[in-house]
Amino acid sequence: MWIDTHCHLDAAEFDADRAAVIDRARAAGVGQMVLPAVQVGDFEAVRTLAHREGFAYALGIHPLYVEQAGEDDLERLRDALGAQRDDSRLVAVGEIGLDHFVPEEVAGRERQERFYAAQLAIAAQFDLPVILHVRRSADSLLKQLRRIRVRGGIAHAFNGSRQQAAAFIELGFKLGFGGTMTYERARQIRDHAATLPASAIVLETDAPDIPPHWLYRTAEQRAAGAMARNEPAELPRIAQTLAGLRGWTIEQAAEVTLANARAALPRLPR
Predict the structure, then answer these.
(1) What percentage of the chain exceeds 90 in pLDDT?
(2) Is residue 269 domain-resident?
(3) 213-236 tens-digit pLDDT
(4) For helices 138-147 and 162-170, angle between their N-to-C axes, nearest 10 degrees
């Protein structure tokens, strides 16, 4: 069985054919998905979808949504976690973190930092792992993680340095690898996937985002503004890239990443 540790199955991109997307994923052997919320308004949708389909979910406020978040949204997150504390499908606080790629006027860094630190404290209060958004922000994320200790989790779509990877691992985190790993030009990420400790690696799609190379848009599609949509059914083929980079069989890749996902998110339904 495969676990997609990061999939936005509630996204509008799946509204037209969500049931078919789920059927394709299951047919491909993806037996579990983690659905992270990105804003308070998504909380009920991801919870309902996870329960209806037998998946897992996380609740949090994404760094690119903090500008539009209300000042009471952190309390609403705390209330939601308290209300669902006994829900076995609630596995983490996420997606939270920092994004230093977007311009300051789009997502102010001071506000991002405040929401991130507050959500780490909430995760610590409920003894939950966190699912981290890491985009050109690893050092800032690590600084807060050393100050506010949480029950580990996953550094989603990790793209930092070897030293940053080691720091996350030391703090109890697994590192998420997905579609980017399938591009030969992504040399650093592919090197990490090949050489980091096997116990540190989990697989994800971030669907509908981060499509693997075989779904990337052609020049004609880009010119027409067409989007390439990723799906959780792509996870086993993404895993073949990981297996090739590490010299594993596909069965080894499944066994290792399944165990790592369950270690990172101990509440994952079996």
Answers:
(1) 91
(2) no
(3) 999 865 456 555 566 899 999 999
(4) 20
